[in-house]
Design goal:
With 356 residues, the protein is α/β, with parallel strands linked by helices. Helices cover 29% and strands 9% of the residues. The protein has twelve helices and seven strands. Strands 2-1-3-6-7 form a five-stranded parallel beta sheet, with helices on both faces. A hairpin with a 6-residue loop joins strand 4 and strand 5. The longest helix is centred in the last third of the chain and has 28 residues. It is elongated, with a radius of gyration of 26 Å. The termini are far apart. Bound molecules: iron/sulfur cluster (SF4) (3 copies).
């Protein structure tokens, strides 16, 4: 008899037997970069989510234009769109809505036309605008995820001078909006999103929707706190150079690149810690300045991108006296520590500890 016995669970839990639809609208003002990024997720991968490979995950039915075969020529767009129409008619329960791309302001058209749409209305033959889909589906969704900076805060399309009046999903629905399940819009910014940040958030909401996780913790800008609670600088491989006042003046250097335009000290993003794909990469870690793409003020407040941030000038000037002194002292200490104790040598006398 073994000293312990393991219980092998063969029957699915009620949560694992549940079916949740995931409806994905990528027809805001979007480049589809977040859809593409998600295919690179590994922690967990989208395949693991879709196949319910993680314990406790419910069955998922993904309706995602990037991969859905119902989008293909043999099916036509109507088969794919029928899921969205069902959700609109209240025949799809429950579902999570993922929005990719910013929401243009359709009220700005003085003489007809539209900025962005997602399929046609079969009754009129006219396009259904992205904002109309939001109006129709938001009251029926269990949760809404805004994926990527365009969908969260407007992003590139919402910068100064744009003609569309583009905005993020929380701008459109209101920051105080909550779903019928009481969940605010969940924002996963990034241009594009860090793949695992999105796959992890989807997973969390699936657990929450099946009663296996508490309310998702979000910050004031509706970002998951455990993903966006720290700055780029706090996780950057180059932070040691910054602390020693050692700054790169040209690309190709391993030193801190704040003088080349890095905004990492004030930007909330976990990419340097998490990497981009499978733990590898991460903007400043691999030599790219942080341009603040996860922030509501992106892009306008970070431009021009290649200039040293104004705050960087002050902080690097302030740290120079400390950094250069401490670097010199560390060099002396480092040389001492880089030398073996002198008693490690042959001879007839035991010198251990007697000489240093
Ligand atoms: Fe594309 Fe960036 Fe907008 Fe995502 S956030 S749709 S990657 S422009
Ligand atoms: Fe901070 Fe950017 Fe320098 Fe990294 S490269 S240490 S994030 S300023
Ligand atoms: Fe965007 Fe900066 Fe994060 Fe890179 S490190 S993903 S530029 S916020």
């Amino acid at each position: 008899m073994p000293s312990h016995t393991a219980t092998k669970r063969t029957d699915p839990t009620p949560a694992e037997e549940a079916l949740i639809h995931v409806l994905w609208i990528n027809a805001g003002l979007s480049c589809d970069g977040d859809s593409v990024a998600l295919t690179a997720a590994t922690q967990p991968s989208i395949e693991e989510i879709a196949l319910g490979a993680l314990p406790g995950l419910p069955h998922i039915s993904m309706h995602w234009p990037l991969i859905d075969f119902e989008c293909g020529p043999e099916h036509g767009a109507d088969d794919f769109l029928e899921w969205f129409r069902k959700a609109d008619r209240g025949e799809l329960e429950p579902f999570v809505l993922i929005v990719e791309g910013s929401i243009p302001n359709e009220k700005l058209h003085a003489e007809g036309g539209y900025w962005s749409g997602f399929g046609n209305n079969p009754e009129t033959g006219q396009p259904i605008t992205t904002s109309e889909w939001l109006d129709r589906l938001a009251p029926k969704a269990t949760a809404i995820i805004a994926a990527g900076t365009c969908a969260t805060y407007g992003g590139i399309h919402a910068m100064a001078g744009n003609p569309t009046g583009a905005m993020g999903v929380p701008d459109y629905l209101g920051y105080g909006w909550t779903s019928k399940a009481g969940i605010p819009v969940v924002c996963v910014p990034g241009c594009p999103i860090q793949p695992d940040n999105l796959s992890e958030t989807i997973t969390y909401l699936l657990y929450q929707a099946t009663g296996q996780a508490p309310m998702i913790p979000l910050d004031d800008n509706l970002r998951p706190t455990w993903l966006f609670g720290h700055t780029v600088h706090e996780g950057c491989d180059r932070a040691g150079y910054y602390e020693q006042g050692d700054f790169a003046t040209e690309y190709g250097s391993p030193k801190c690149i704040v003088k080349l335009g890095c905004w990492g000290p004030v930007v909330k993003c976990n990419v340097p810690k998490r990497g981009w794909m499978n733990g590898i990469g991460g903007c400043p870690n691999v030599g790219g300045i942080c341009i603040g793409c996860t922030m509501p003020g992106f892009p306008d407040k970070f431009m021009p991108f290649m200039d040293e941030p104004p705050g960087g000038k002050l902080s690097t000037t302030a740290i120079m006296p400390y950094g250069t002194t401490i670097r010199a002292l560390r060099k002396i200490t480092g040389n001492t520590l880089d030398t073996e104790p002198r008693w490690r040598r042959p001879g007839s006398k035991l010198l251990t500890g007697a000489v240093r």
